[in-house]
Amino acid sequence: MATPPKLGISARLNVYIASTRVGKRFKLAERNTTFTTELRAGTATFLTMAYILAVNASILTDSGGTCSVSDCTPLCSDPTVAVANCTGAGLRVIPPNDSCKFPPVNPGYSACLERTRKDLIVATTASSLIGCLIMGTFSNLPLALAPGMGTNAYFAYTVVGYHGSGNVPYSSALAAIFIEGLIFLFISAVGLRARLAKLVPKPVRISSSAGIGLFLAFIGLQSNQGIGLIGYSPSTLVTLGACPRSSRAALAPVMTAPNGTVTLLPGGAVSGEIMCLGDRMISPTFWLGMVGFFIIAYCLVKNIKGAMIYGIVFVTVVSWFRNTLVTAFPDTVSGNSAYRYFKKIVDVHVIGSTAGALSFSGMGKAKFWEALFTFLYVDILDTTGTLYSMARFAGFTDDNGDFEGQYFAFMSDASSIVVGSLLGTSPVCTYIESSTGIREGGRTGLTALTVAGYFFMALFFTPLLASIPAWAVGPPLILIGVLMMRCVVEIEWDDMKQAIPAFMTMLLMPLTYSIAYGLIGGIGTFIVLEMWDWGKDLLGRLGIRRCLKSDSLISETANGTNNGAHEDVKKHEVV
């Protein structure tokens, strides 16, 4: 009798974990997954979303954080003379004013911004860690959380404004997010959030997954968070990019005063280097990103597990070498600073200014409540839509659109918003990059707990994780977009009432850079197209339509009788 083949170490580990209380608690066997698969899925999810550590901190730092004019240092009227020596003829010490926060930025304010950026990296990491821990433990879903892209930009550039030039101070904006989080938590606790989500029409629900996929792919194609294939065009908005750093230019909305002074528009911000001045399609980092793209694509074609991880790690390691055309640390002031931070490898930073910085003193202002309700409606539409899309992508939803653990999933991301505001960051939400781990086979909360474990390590290894370049993250985002398009076959394209709202949802998400706006566009289109039928049904219920039908039938009967009489007369005439 042939002996059964001996199981490998990972297989034996999977069998053992599945039989323990942990395996039964997270339903590994029931959801047809294994412990090592969950670890791999969590690793893929984390590597795909690790860019948020640096990106979110950079965006929120543009708001100025808690930095103010008091952090600026006095300067001599002659910039080449130190303040201590500013005593000669024609020299005077200039006290700081509001202009010290804007280019050329005062050295004291710049130093405060650098401290704030490090605070916000830790705040981003800690809020993501807590959110993933809550999600994995209570909802048992493979969904990761972090401060959301889009809402962080709205927070930094619209609410607080570039370096505090907006209508709401940073501390008051955090208070608005805190209150909004409590309201959101209450809505989730009483079950109203699930009911609100059910009001989303079916074609919009189905197409939102594809819209998010296109949104992810669009992000992955840009230079700020991707491979840089798409660039800015002043005439067509977007065009072919992929030019090297030396051929890129940053843009900013400015206005010219009558005296010729050029200043930044209120609420405006200086963009990244998004416009190519020439040399398109010759960027070395673009082509390295394409190598990563084809590594992942080939692994997906051959159904090789860990596809996303292989591509990200390969591109990242190659980019860590200095003095190359694809280095993540160019020989610039910022590049040298990033490399010095990278060389630390281990760095434990304690939050100094952003944690507990809430201030409720601005609650009497209309702009405060405007910001609060904007955050609230975006979270209701955006995060709820993302949750349902990820659950659908993982195959968890039933015929009614419900999925196991949805109540605790809603509670998890709502409570994470409150935690994030206390740490000093913008609203925390379920991340669409969770689809990467789901694609790798993640089906339980162990995936989210694995991501939480990586965020915990990130508290110590932030220098390494903050050094993953954008062109390493872009390829998996693009290919996740491919995977999320599969739902379009479920849309009834022959029924225009279904097809048009679905198409508008998919189209607006990437082009408005907002999941919420895509949902609003799709829902609005659906309502307009259904309004006529709803009107007829309403008239029927009120009895008005029946009366109209009765009058119509009487009229038709009368006309039929008259017509019959005329026909009889004609017959007599012929006879």
N-to-C series of helices and strands: HHHHEEHEHHHHEEEEEEHHHHHEHHHHHH
| Strand segment tally | 10
Number of helices, counting only DSSP H or I runs of 4 residues or more = 20
- Percentage of residues in DSSP E strands: 5-15%
Shape: globular
Rg of Cα set = 29 Å
Structural description of this entry:
By secondary structure, the protein is mainly alpha-helical. The protein has 20 helices and ten strands. The protein has helices spanning 9-19, 21-25, 35-49, 52-61, 107-139, 151-160, 170-189, 192-198, 202-221, 284-301, 307-319, 333-344, 366-394, 406-423, 434-439, 445-465, 470-483, 496-511, 515-542, 544-574, and strands at 75-76, 93-94, 145-147, 230-233, 237-240, 248-250, 254-256, 262-264, 273-276, 428-430. A hairpin with a 3-residue loop joins strand 4 and strand 5. The longest helix has 33 residues, at 107-139. The protein is globular. The N and C termini lie far apart (104 Å).
Describe the structure using short key phrases:
single chain; 575 residues; mainly alpha; two-stranded antiparallel sheet; two-stranded antiparallel ribbon; 20 helices; 10 strands; globular; disordered C terminus
Layout of strands and helices, then pairs:
Elements: H1 9-19, H2 21-25, H3 35-49, H4 52-61, E1 75-76, E2 93-94, H5 107-139, E3 145-147, H6 151-160, H7 170-189, H8 192-198, H9 202-221, E4 230-233, E5 237-240, E6 248-250, E7 254-256, E8 262-264, E9 273-276, H10 284-301, H11 307-319, H12 333-344, H13 366-394, H14 406-423, E10 428-430, H15 434-439, H16 445-465, H17 470-483, H18 496-511, H19 515-542, H20 544-574
Antiparallel strand pairs: 1-2, 3-10, 4-5, 6-9, 7-8
